[in-house]
Design a protein that fits this description.
2 copies of one chain form a homodimer. Chain A is an all-alpha fold. Chain A is 73% helix and 0% strand. The first copy, chain A, is elongated, with a radius of gyration of 19 Å. The mean pLDDT of chain A is 97. The interface between A and B is large, with 47 and 48 residues. The structure holds a DNA duplex (30 and 30 nucleotides).
Chain lengths: 197, 197
DNA sequence: GGAATTAAATACCGTATCGTATTTTAATTA
DNA sequence: TAATTAAAATACGATACGGTATTTAATTCC
């Protein structure tokens, strides 16, 4: 049992709320006052339990990856479905996650990719790393496909992995630009058509 | 001849400088003081000749489109090269424009797509429109290709147009994430491989 | 040359921001 | 119950921001 006055709000919950706020409004448009109000934690409590704005943002990125990025990557990499189905599921999952109910629109990592490129280098690097780790999930699945004979030996898996990671970003950009769900699905089918079979 | 004291700085030049500043740092990270310093125009002069921050940003978007977007779209739409070559030139041009010397990194419109989605609705709409107009340039070229027999009659041009517009965004995202030029070129070749022939 | 016109330059205002010092409150231990 | 520990609440400080009022300087028309 801890000694003094107990916390009113679990820092884990506060971090999740902060993550949602950053996800929705971005780094610059989110103020510490916004986070304080959203979490119900006064600013000194925030600083004491979660750190300053940059630290909270980094933790929010990490939490997002734990809750959203990693599970989707895991699903993709370890899926026993045929390659094409696995890729369709991945891109389709990305598409639907952009407008999931009960959560902000879009992908937090993609939203942050450009805004954070002009800011703190450490944050920029972390965002880049998350994009690359998504690419690497595609790469892992493609390598397995090749080893299991689903792809020709001559296949350039890295090129394909960059292509599909890029495709998942493309879906985010086009969705943000107002392209309808049905058109996004057609886009996905176009990109899947590069696969043999 | 105008009456009173002559302008020290041509508002056209100032707008171009402001555009470069927004392009490099984004909307939120660019302050009016930054623009004032970059242009050499004191703040009252800026407001008098170019308007407030939102107005300058909108004008910067329009100028960027005039100087960068429209010419590239025009080149794509009216190119007499075979479809595949025209698309390769377009995507390759996008890729190289991301790191052109003497200009900020990346594409101003793409950089703004996510940051501005949480801000002023008018700005958000304009950014979306620019993304869609890029898509429409691909659409126009694909329709011509179909009418000229370069594509089968059954082709879904809109799906292909969204795909290639998305591809151009994908290049921007992957480049921002640190993917090398050679790998981006391989990505482009993958995307071009969906075309017949 | 002087009145009128327009822009530059400086200084300023209200507000919002990140971050913290200080006080008050709630719990545990002795 | 008194002392201790830790958090909540409030208030505050320094700075940066968007935007403007005011004064000064440069040019044209009469």
């Amino acid at each position: 049992m801890p000694r003094g006055r107990p916390r009113k709000i679990d820092p884990k919950d506060a971090l999740k709320t902060a993550m949602m706020t950053f996800w929705e409004k971005g780094y610059e448009r989110t103020s510490m006052a916004d986070i304080s109000e959203a979490t119900g934690m006064a600013k000194p409590g925030l600083y004491a339990s979660l750190g300053d704005k940059d630290e909270i943002f980094k933790k929010a990125l990490a939490l997002y990856n734990d809750e959203m990025g990693s599970p989707m990557a895991e699903e993709l990499v370890s899926s026993s479905a045929p390659l094409k189905e696995a890729l369709r599921a991945s891109l389709s999952g990305m598409m639907h996650s952009l407008q999931g109910s009960g959560q902000p629109m879009g992908c937090f990592v993609l939203n942050s990719t450009f805004e954070c490129s002009a800011g703190d280098p450490d944050i920029k690097e972390r965002v880049c790393d998350l994009n690359i780790s998504r690419r690497d999930a595609y790469l892992a699945r493609l390598k397995r496909a090749k080893s299991e004979g689903e792809l020709p030996e001559a296949t350039d898996e890295l090129a394909l992995a960059n292509f599909f990671a890029g495709q998942s970003a493309a879906i985010g950009v086009m969705a943000q630009s107002g392209v309808e769900l049905g058109d996004l699905e057609a886009m996905i089918e176009v990109s899947l058509s590069i696969l043999p079979g």
